Amino acid sequence: MTARYVKPTAFDGAFNGAVALLTRLGLSFAGSRVLAVRGRTSGQWRTNPVNPLHVDGARYLVAPRGHTQWVRNLRAAAEGELRKGRRVEAFRAVELADAEKPAIIREYLRVWAWEVGRFFEGVDASSSDERIREIAPGFPVFRITPI
Predict the structure, then answer these.
(1) Which residues have C-beta within 8 Å of that of residue 74, sequence separation ≥ 6?
(2) Closest Cα to residue 48, out of 61, 57, 59, 30?
(3) Coil, helix or strand for 68?
(4) pLDDT tens digits along 20-57
(5) Would you call 48 helix, strand, or coil by DSSP?
(6) Of 106 and 22, which is predicted with more confidence?
């Protein structure tokens, strides 16, 4: 099985660029942050806007477009930064097993479906646990903790 990846459209690129710019200026778009992770081969900082999620006192990053470059880099580095304006939060990341994902994906869809719901293959926050478990392998989820 190949890893699920949804290539960004021109609209996605423009939207992500605008969100990233606003977030870098300190104007968070609905809680967005700029994720900074060292590239797994270059070692250079790579950035991408993300939507951190808070569930039961823990924080998570969900990859709605699947196994993207930021996901691969975060797996390799196991740490990164969330940035908003001049504020930088360093963190460690642990990827969740598929069995741990349904509650997190459900909450992510409840909070962020208006922005990323189209990537979830017809699944929404009201979908059954069984259906969410079926799609879970295609949606990497990381629990993040401050360093």
Answers:
(1) 35, 37, 61, 80, 93, 142
(2) 61
(3) coil
(4) 888 888 888 788 999 999 999 999 999 999 999 999 99
(5) strand
(6) 106
* Cβ density class 96-110: b for 16+ within 10 Å, e for less: beeeebbebbbbbbe
In the chain, the domains with their CATH numbers are 10-146 (2.30.110.10)
Instruction: Give the separation between CA 77 and CA 12, rounded to whole angstroms.
Output: 25
User: How many C-alpha atoms does 128 have within 13 Å on its Cβ side?
Assistant: 3
Nearest to 82 by CA among 51, 113, 119, 108: 51
Instruction: Say if CB 136 and CB 102 are below 8 A apart.
Output: yes
Exposure letters 132-143 (e unless 16+ CB within 10 A, then b): beebbebbbbbb
